Amino acid sequence: MVKIVDVAKRAGVSTASVSRVISGHPGISDELRERVNVAVKALGYRPDLAARRLRSGRTDTLGLIVSDIRNPFFTEVSRAVEDVAYQNGMRVLLCNADEDPDKEAFYLEMMRDENVSGVILSPTLALLKSLRPANYPFPLVLVDRCERDTDADAVVLDNFDAGYRLTEHLITQGCQRIVFLYGSVGSTGPQRHQGYLAAMAAANLAPEAEPIAPRSERAREVASLLLQRNPLPDALAASSGLVLLGIAEAVKAAGVKVPGDIAIAGFDDLPWTSLVTPDITVIRQPTNEIGQTALRLLLERVAQPERAVRRVVLRGELLARGSTQLR
Amino acid sequence: MVKIVDVAKRAGVSTASVSRVISGHPGISDELRERVNVAVKALGYRPDLAARRLRSGRTDTLGLIVSDIRNPFFTEVSRAVEDVAYQNGMRVLLCNADEDPDKEAFYLEMMRDENVSGVILSPTLALLKSLRPANYPFPLVLVDRCERDTDADAVVLDNFDAGYRLTEHLITQGCQRIVFLYGSVGSTGPQRHQGYLAAMAAANLAPEAEPIAPRSERAREVASLLLQRNPLPDALAASSGLVLLGIAEAVKAAGVKVPGDIAIAGFDDLPWTSLVTPDITVIRQPTNEIGQTALRLLLERVAQPERAVRRVVLRGELLARGSTQLR
DNA sequence: ATGAAAGCGCTAACAA
DNA sequence: TTGTTAGCGCTTTCAT
């Protein structure tokens, strides 16, 4: 392996100069820089990252802990984060907590061990409730999930508003008995549920909601039961794409007509939601913007550790489609 | 920060002993081990990974470079790889090459810089054609994509067989003019195409196939054109889940009846394929097994660098569904 | 603007 | 079985 002394010898300079050149330090004569660059190329030199990290204390690495990598929402966000990170010369350690607080804790420990510059995280509700960002040796940016009083930078959807508008839309379309199925492991489901409750109350309708584990299988089971009722509810609404999938599966299995017998609506503009017949009304989340913004917040926090905590709240876009057509 | 000397002092032993205990070396007296463990806990000591890596030359890290993180097939594989890796005490560096050979090369360089123990990779065709595993300072295990003469451990589907059986199934269902759309950036599309050609030849049918960029948008465009023909083809077959999605979108937009006017079939048992009406015939890939096997191969290769190259070929499962019902 | 040299925290030879 | 110590490759004072 070629090391920095080899380059230094070849270029006829000191190792310090080589280090300065490859780290892009200012105040280097053009001639020396050129000599070093030539030697680096000639020898195919690559700095040893472990040595560099040990000595400098910096890692240029950041962590991204998503709660479920199979959820396309997080996949999209991850892609956006990764893209921007590499454009900024940072590496990303991507981890999948699988909605499991134990795994989540394990990965956060790991981030500490890895001495990352910062972490982007979509926490479980359990962690969120007890989160003390000051306890971590790195800055934290939350995505998708965050409570009103959480003391950390965050990028989230206006979940209350989204839940409200989705419900309001259903009401406008003539639905009254609207059942809301929401994931209870994160904070988004409950927040969207609050929006649902407010919209129902504003219309003087009786709410009915079911908190469930955020997996399509579970949503499907619960929805199946709901679909055996007589009379049927007017609508089933979901707090996420995963829950919506379960509902759609249950509806298909039960053979009820949408929107004739029942309306359905949910979150996340996934390809399949516009592929099925009828296509399904959803609130679209700006996944790219969420990921990019989270990374930007993190980089800014790294640069200025003391600046005030910021929360970026993005608005969902209601895509009204066939599944909620006027009855 | 508490370091190894602090622990050594507190336990009244040498740093070497502490190092031995925390690295799980054999031949340590129970009493010393106990003393060290107590001190470690009391001080909350965590080894500095950079120092450890610099000194030992090992990183206990492996790389996973997928060609498209948004493709659910790779998401599933990634999850499986990550799960097993962490069970084995290894960290995973997950990167998304986005089907771009430049990014792919960049990430492979990065893996070298990170000094990973090994890399799991789904290469673009461009890379695969010129791949010299011996050129990399780490072992390589290919997933999903590999050619007959590739000189590296690999876990792949029997793509020829899968393409053959999917086509054969369509023929059995009465289709004759079967158009095959396949992704041309990886090796799987072309291999499945070969299976398609063989099945068509065996039935004395004239093949017609379109190589396309592996994105649903592109598949949709090409399929739309195909659907304007008069008469329509008997069937449209896809070499991947992404291509199948594009076909399904085009079919819906064109308003043609499936399987009445045209049959469709493809790959990957994604949730939406059984959600649409009619549900869609696919070849299911054993994603979990692919990921787990790839990791196993890699760990075995790390343990025994000189063992013979192995290729694990898994069989796809034909899920015959409504979209290819007998005409 | 450049060089000399100390030392980041740990592991592994070697010694005892 | 345990301790002593050199040194992994780099960055960063400090000196010039």
What is the first-to-last residue Cα distance of chain A? Answer: 73 Å
Which assembly state applies to the chains in this document? Answer: homodimer
Q: Compute the number of structural domains of chain A.
A: 3
Order of helices and strands of chain A: HHHHEHEHEHEEHEHEHEHEEHEE
* Parts with pLDDT < 50 across at least 5 consecutive residues of chain A: none
The largest inter-chain interface, given as chain pair and residues per side, is: A-B, 41 and 41 residues
Please outline the major beta sheet of chain A.
6 strands, parallel
Structural category of chain A? alpha/beta
CATH domain topology of the largest domain in chain A? Rossmann fold
| Spatial shape of chain A | elongated
Mean pLDDT of chain A: 95
Fourth CATH level, the homologous superfamily of the largest domain in chain A = Response regulator
Beta strand count of chain A = 12
Q: In DSSP terms, counting alpha (H) and pi (I) runs of 4 or more, how many helices of chain A?
A: 12
Instruction: Please identify, by name, the CATH architecture of the largest domain in chain A.
Output: 3-Layer(aba) Sandwich
The strand order across the widest sheet of chain A is 2-1-3-4-5-11
- Determine the strand fraction of chain A and express it as a percent band: 15-25%
Can you tell me the CATH class of the largest domain in chain A? Alpha Beta
Fraction of residues in H or I helices of chain A: 40-55%
Whole-angstrom Rg of chain A: 25 Å
Protein name (chains A, B): LacI family transcriptional regulator
Keywords (chains A, B): DNA-binding, Transcription, Transcription regulation
InterPro entries (chains A, B): HTH_LacI, LacI/GalR-like_sensor, Lambda_DNA-bd_dom_sf, Peripla_BP_I
Pfam families (chains A, B): LacI, Peripla_BP_3
